[in-house]
Amino acid sequence: MSDPTIQTFCCHHTGSKEDLAIRIMDEFNTESYNIVCLVSSTIGIIGSIYQIFPCKISSHSDGFGNKTNSRARNIIIWLAVADLMASLGVLVRSSLWLRYKSIIPLPDDEISVLFCSITSAWTQYFYTATWFWTLFYAIDTLRTIKGRDSHPTLYHSIAWGVPAATTGIGLSILYIPNATCHNLKTVTSAFLRILPNYCATYVPIAMVMIVNPVLYILAGKEVEMTVALPLAQFTSKERRVVDTLKLKFFLINVVFYVCWLPNLVNGVMIWTMWFNMPVKIIISVWYIMALMNPMQALLNALVYRRWNTNGKKYRPTFSSIHKELNLPDELSPLLGSEPPRMQLSPLPPGINNYATM
């Protein structure tokens, strides 16, 4: 999992019971925790691989003689790659922790400190990348529906570059120069040493939780207007397409909240109850994070996939919707006759990436 509290365990400690980490370890069953991490990370790896290699990326016709690559599919693949690498980091770290029966390095164990900090940085980096790819999927969804171009180069620059900066800065402040982040003498030194890493972790999560629902609400309204306005009416066929898209957007948001809200809860509890830490509750939240963080890959494979309707692949493209809307059995509910048909202008071809479930 990706959590700044666990990352502080990589620091040297004195072995004193005054250390918060030592107090927590006294009540923490590290073996069962690492087993949960192993199981969830393995499931996450399987989910990531399923997303990356279910079928080859192919071009499809937009109904007007053009060929377009699937913008959405490319983003999903990179999201799955980041999930895969993060789950591998959790798997390796938990395997070695389980093998050597220790999470907190011994006071003079430099090798364990180095291993712990590297695996923590690896996991933190790739999970941060997944948060940005989740954000860019929502952004590109709205841009596609509006008929605007994608910016894959910009997406890659931010999704891989910003996590490198935030992870590097946050963990460098925490570990350099001597990896001693326990028993800091003043509250100010604790804030300056530990808080930046918390911000580097939780600010991107909170940003996605706030921005993505707004983007998907706007995308749903845009689809509804795009489908309904040309005919000035909204039949069951249009409603089915719009409702399916809105449901998919809603479930994407739910998955992100389920996987990462426990991390925010943990952070709030740590900083608001520092002097009266509810250790048992904190440990329970850690188990939830250990289960749900790597599980993101599997849940993403479920909500980003193509959906089935009535046992068949439901592939409504907007060009096919145009054809459906011109069927003679679509009668006006007021006149009892076929409504006047307006000439439909070609809709953005890339919208099929998101209408195809």
Highlighted features:
357 residues, mainly alpha, two-stranded antiparallel sheet, 11 helices, 4 strands, elongated, transmembrane, membrane
In short:
The chain crosses the membrane at residues 33-53, 74-92, 112-133, 154-175, 195-219, 249-275, 281-304. The chain is mostly helical and 357 residues long. 68% of the residues lie in helices and 2% in strands.
What does this 3D model show about the protein?
The protein is mainly alpha-helical. The strands form two sheets. It has a two-stranded antiparallel sheet with strand order 1-2. It is elongated. A hairpin with a 2-residue loop joins strand 3 and strand 4. The longest helix has 42 residues. The C terminus is likely disordered. Helix 6 packs antiparallel against helix 7. Pfam families: Ocular_alb. Keywords: Membrane, Transmembrane, Transmembrane helix. It comes from Papilio xuthus (Asian swallowtail butterfly).
Structural class: mainly alpha
The main sheet orders its strands as: 1-2
β-strand number = 4
- Structural Rg: 24 Å
Q: Note the main sheet.
A: 2 strands, antiparallel
- Helical segment tally? 11
Average pLDDT level: 77
Fraction in helix: 55-70%
- The backbone outline, from C-alpha atoms, is elongated
- Percent of residues in beta strands: under 5%
Element order: H for helix, E for strand:
HHHEEHHHHHHEEHH
Tell me the distance between the termini: 30 Å
What topology emerges from the helices and strands here?
Blueprint: H1 4-8, H2 20-26, H3 30-52, E1 60-61, E2 67-68, H4 71-100, H5 110-145, H6 152-175, H7 187-228, H8 236-272, H9 279-303, E3 308-309, E4 312-313, H10 318-325, H11 352-355
Antiparallel strand pairs: 1-2, 3-4
Helix pairs in contact: 3-4, 3-9, 4-5, 4-9, 5-6, 5-7, 6-7, 7-8, 8-9
